[in-house]
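User: Can you predict the 3D structure of DUF1272 domain-containing protein? Sequence below.
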Amino acid sequence: MLEMRPDCERCGTDLPPQAHGAFICSFECTFCAECAEALDEKCPNCGGELSDRPTRTGERLKRHPGATERRHRG
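Assistant: Sure. Here are the predicted C-alpha cells for DUF1272 domain-containing protein:
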C-alpha cells in the first residue's frame, strides 16, 4: 500500500492523499506537479521516473489515512 506522503520533498507544498497533482517514483519519493516538471519528471534521489500518484478517497482514506511525516527539508 502506498504511504501517501503529505508534502513535496522539494518545495514543501501540501499533497493530501485525496488530491490530484502529486508525482511519485518507485520508492515513493513525492513531488508536486510544478517540481516534477522542473525536474523533467525524473526523481533527484534515485533517478527513477516520476509518475502520477493515485488518489485515495472515501472509506479507503478513512481506513488507511496518508502518512503524516513530512519529507521537505527546506
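The two ends are 27 Å apart (CA to CA). The mean pLDDT is 95.
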